[in-house]
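During the reporting period the student researcher (J.K.) took over the structure-prediction task from the postdoctoral fellow and processed the backlog of single-chain submissions. One of the processed entries is reproduced below for the supervisory committee.
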Amino acid sequence: ERDMQRVVGPSQPIMATVGDEVILPCQLEPATKASGLTVEWARPDLNPRFVYVWRDGVELESKTHPSYKRRTKVFPDEQKLGDVSLNLSKVKFSDGGTYKCFIPGHGDALIQLVVGAVNSPFIVSINISSSGVVLQCESEGWYPEPEVLWLDGEGNLLSAGPTETVRGPDDLYTVSSRVTVEKRHSNSFTCRVQQKNINQTRETHIHIAGSNMKGLKPPLPTPLTEKKQTFSYTYIFTSRGSVNVKFVLRLVCYTCRVLHETCRHCGWLWYPQSCSQ
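J.K. obtained the following structure tokens:
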């Protein structure tokens, strides 16, 4: 009967996101008490390769790779049923990879862990074009590569330009997307970033006050050399929801200082014509 036992793992990759607690399944079949057996969890690409070793009823922490110490454990009560699954806490992006669950004399199983990373998007610019208002949304620190969607206030998808994607040296993705909204659209818009493989979605909302959708004028021709983009329009857009209102107000004041040093009026609606040149 001992020779017929084998180590079995999941047929599909295990998905997790940074910061999660995840279980890597591993089972001795037919189900047999595994309490007295040696169980080795390892990553072949690491040195030392062990992420957890259980022998004679105790954990051999001295054999564990430093990055996994105090983050891995098994379930002694479940071992009575042949369950030698590994619990991994405080998941890091670097934890993604192939794990080997090995029981000497019974074989091994390979378990693939895919670690996703997510971050909230934010509106990085609001510009005026001849066809409407151009909104730009950006989000960094994603894995795997996400998609970006724009929605109006009724939840309808908006037609946006192609998403710009950059993969950094840390393998994390930064995505940026622009959409042009017209007067016929509602004044509320959502930028949604999602990764379906890890079932993660983040979004931010922006509201453009109704009066600001009418009579829009193009930017002033004042040259800007600052790295931070500033607003220099007749109307400053208000925002609410997930967009930080203080962020918008800070941009307005920053514009006053850059474009008109003698101007000391900063508020939700700022008229550059009223500032001394």
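The committee noted the following: The chain has two domains: 2-116, 122-274.
J.K. will present the remaining backlog at the next meeting.
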